[in-house]
Amino acid sequence: MLNQVLSIIGSLLVLGAYFALQRGHLKSDARLYSALNFLGAGLMTLVAVTEWQIGFIVLEGSWALLSFPGMVRKGSARE
Fold first, then answer.
1. Taking a C-beta distance cutoff of 8 angstroms, is the pair 65, 42 a contact?
2. Does the structure show a pLDDT above 70 at 11?
3. Average pLDDT of 12-35?
4. 32 contacts: CB under 8 Å, gap ≥ 6
5. Terminal C-alpha separation, the chain
6. Nearest to 59 by CA among 74, 50, 51, 48
7. pTM of the predicted model, to two decimals?
């Protein structure tokens, strides 16, 4: 049950970031966009690890790692 909740939260974070990007509320290089992707993918990676889903570990782990540099760089959170 906990894994289901975590995966839903993670997917909503990633989808929410993408929705905000598509609506023009965030830019693709915004720290907030990267942070939402990092947190969402990180939660889904955690679930994938506990259920030993190798394909999803690779996909979501990579997504989180690729989002990390954009999240920690200096600059505006929304620009």
1. no
2. yes
3. 92
4. 17, 26, 77, 78
5. 37
6. 48
7. 0.80
